[in-house]
């Protein structure tokens, strides 16, 4: 029996878990303008998407939702020039954006489709390819951060039960200690709000998470991410995302147009400082070197790779021979180079009484697999479903018993994905000969085992 079924049974028998409340913990009536059913702290990409998704949920159409954002309401201005901050959206989350009406705004503007992902080990001559350029299945979609937020906000503003307040800084939270209490949010301007459910979408330094007092496992990598917009010396059918695993960290090209790609380069702190000081011409040269440089090879690794390849061919399971290589970079979009710190983080609990964490407030992962924002969108979809079902059977939106379904489902998926990404990061951060042998042969084997490859794609696409 599911938790929601138990909730429904409990309500039917008038158990103590669910008592109808007419007043908040601060004495305000539930129909007061200071009361909202759901308050979302943080109006970034995930916060706005959650507000929009909840606003479009017919089961929650009578629920009042407030989104509090600390920054000003920035107007999106379309430009032919690409931003240096983009995200890779998987097909499952593209469907979410389509369902809430946001994708049409992206589609009418600009985005790129990734049909094929090619990952290459710089130390050995091994690689793995996901997807086909001629396939009807897409691997992911590259969208500018600002455009995605604009698309979601445009639809969010149409939701009748969603209110947004910008430039609102939160002073403190008073979270429920007992069942039946409400969360209280105090703003720096003196305003106070109460709600059945407070959702923290306030990023990696989440104040909501800190107020919950949950354990947060986190560390900083000795790597820095560098982003830029790059131009090729020719036009190509640019539907491939390339990633080369260097000894210092992965370098990746994400398609934008027929002659432009977005760079995401994870490298050491010292190297990143050097790269940021280079002229544009020198930086382009460094990128090309990162994509093409021949690193010192290990004879035993090459020998084992060739032997394993011969074995695969003898067994009539040859590796993918349709390997493509990235084009040469010609120039850098002026002013597009930037850097940002990288880190790992995971909250041991995503929920407590009347509170839930979503997106980076709950988890943070290395960008090498492009899963950070997709994990956040997965949280949005799951919480939306859980809250809709909870309200349908008569549960309070902030009841921890119902919220457990959200926490259980998302931690089961997120932890598995985060361990996989962290494992890949650690595996390719060493040039130890035994490790290089294991990962090279593993990459070769995975490349020819199509059921495993398809399973990986399906897992990353949901």
Automatic annotation (TrEMBL):
Membrane topology: Peripheral membrane protein
GO cellular component, one term: extrinsic component of mitochondrial inner membrane
Pathway it works in: Cofactor biosynthesis; ubiquinone biosynthesis
Keywords, comma-separated and alphabetical: FAD, Flavoprotein, Membrane, Mitochondrion, Mitochondrion inner membrane, Monooxygenase, Oxidoreductase, Transit peptide, Ubiquinone biosynthesis
Top enzyme class: oxidoreductase
Keyword Iron: no
Top-level division of the source organism's lineage: Eukaryota
One Pfam family per UniProt: FAD_binding_3
Cofactor(s) needed for function: FAD
GO molecular function ontology, one term from the record: 2-methoxy-6-polyprenolphenol 4-hydroxylase activity
Entry-linked SUPFAM superfamilies: FAD/NAD(P)-binding domain (SSF51905)
Every FAD-binding domain range: 36-285, 346-413
Major place of residence: mitochondrion
Reaction(s) this enzyme catalyzes, per UniProt: a 2-methoxy-6-(all-trans-polyprenyl)phenol + 2 reduced [2Fe-2S]-[ferredoxin] + O2 + 2 H(+) = a 2-methoxy-6-(all-trans-polyprenyl)benzene-1,4-diol + 2 oxidized [2Fe-2S]-[ferredoxin] + H2O; a 4-hydroxy-3-(all-trans-polyprenyl)benzoate + 2 reduced [2Fe-2S]-[ferredoxin] + O2 + 2 H(+) = a 3,4-dihydroxy-5-(all-trans-polyprenyl)benzoate + 2 oxidized [2Fe-2S]-[ferredoxin] + H2O
Subcellular location per the Swiss-Prot or TrEMBL entry: Mitochondrion inner membrane
Enzyme Commission number: 1.14.15.45, 1.14.15.46
PANTHER family: UBIQUINONE BIOSYNTHESIS MONOOXYGENASE COQ6, MITOCHONDRIAL (PTHR43876)
HAMAP family per record: COQ6_monooxygenase
Quaternary structure note: Component of a multi-subunit COQ enzyme complex.
Family: Belongs to the UbiH/COQ6 family.
Function: FAD-dependent monooxygenase required for two non-consecutive steps during ubiquinone biosynthesis. Required for the C5-ring hydroxylation during ubiquinone biosynthesis by catalyzing the hydroxylation of 4-hydroxy-3-(all-trans-polyprenyl)benzoic acid to 3,4-dihydroxy-5-(all-trans-polyprenyl)benzoic acid. Also acts downstream of coq4, for the C1-hydroxylation during ubiquinone biosynthesis by catalyzing the hydroxylation of 2-methoxy-6-(all-trans-polyprenyl)phenol to 2-methoxy-6-(all-trans-polyprenyl)benzene-1,4-diol.
Protein name in the entry: Ubiquinone biosynthesis monooxygenase COQ6, mitochondrial
Source organism per UniProt: Phyllotreta striolata (Striped flea beetle)
Gene: coq6
